[in-house]
Amino acid sequence: MNTPASAPPRPGPPLWLLAELTYRCPLHCVFCYNPIDFAEQTQELSTEDWLRVLREGRELGAVQCGLSGGEPLLRDDLEVIVAEARRLGYYTNLLTSGVGFTAERAQALKAAGLDHVQLSFQDSTREMNDFLSHAKTFELKRRVAQIIKSQGWPMVMNVVLHRYNIDHIDRIIALADELGAEYIELANTQYYSWAFVNRQQLLPTRQQLQRAEAVTNEWREKLASRMRLFFVAPDYHDGKPKKCVNGWGSTFLTVTPDGTALPCHTAKMLPGLAFPNVREHSVRDIWFDSEGFNRYRGTGWMKQPCASCDQREQDLGGCRCQAYLIANDPAAADPVCPKSPHHALVQEAVAQAERGGDAVIEHPLVFRDPAQSRRLAREA
Ligand code: FES
Description:
Layout: E1 16-20, H1 47-60, E2 64-68, H2 78-88, E3 91-96, H3 103-112, E4 116-121, H4 126-133, H5 138-150, E5 155-161, H6 169-179, E6 183-188, H7 193-197, H8 199-202, H9 206-223, E7 228-232, H10 235-238, E8 252-255, E9 261-262, H11 283-289, H12 291-294, H13 312-315, H14 320-327, H15 343-355, H16 358-362, H17 370-379
Parallel strand pairs: 1-2, 1-8, 2-3, 3-4, 4-5, 5-6, 6-7
Antiparallel strand pairs: 8-9
Helix pairs in contact: 1-2, 2-3, 6-9
Bound molecules: FE2/S2 (inorganic) cluster.
Residues 192, 244-245, 264, 266-267, 319-321 line the site of FE2/S2 (inorganic) cluster (FES).
């Protein structure tokens, strides 16, 4: 392990272990956060490897285990992995599109000890839901919601918001209420990976966002204790850098399907950084001593304007992946910040969204798909 010369502060344990079990997925979402070149990353850890990762993570102090993908239900050993996570004392949650979530599978996962399910919808209408994922899943998702409720699991409904569905927010929340969700996560699109490819088409207008937030607040009052509503802020429009992943290497440890360990699920694209693999290193060594986890920990890595900013401890310079995608420098200030020298690039993207129409017509959406993935990887 390469430890940098001026070592950053030693962190506490990772609290969240996110196991991305596979990049395989039957959906083709235009905002998918899986890597653009996912089609070239076909290796997956074995069941034994995953069980060891879970054990090592728990020994280190992780308490929450998310099981995601791709579609995690495509792994036949999901129940085995859940059972071991539960035995080790994790709180487990499954992040699923619902495809493959049959009544039988639900029973087996319940018996294995799964605590919680997050079900994604793309929209409240069949037409838009099925269009955005390029798969007929709307009715299936409704059935899966019933299965989740029948097993007594708390349910989070997750909807990624953007220009195409944000005006349906009223019906989206009503759908969550009808299906009995305890939580709804209304997540404004974060522009990485496939969402970055489609950014021009997905960015909403300010007016759309203001209305969506107002509608969400009305529902918050109406639903009171019945459902909790989370509205994930749109940082492009707000001009407020977020403390991404709660601080690099402070809380989250993601393991990708091939075993690469990352501080956030898109960090692998960052240049000049080596991320270790759980096949070769222990989770403890990875967390405390790897270059990849140490590089952007704390504030010591910052340059101006972050280094002297009075907000640096609050936002930790924002998102490293966003800095790379927009400013071509992962150590730059997040360009959503008005103090960033690259902020005009964000303002221009937002202004283009305000101007509307043409961009959407001129640039068709790129759906997540193996052929597109290989094409984009070749062109990168
Ligand atoms: Fe990678 Fe923000 S998504 S640091």
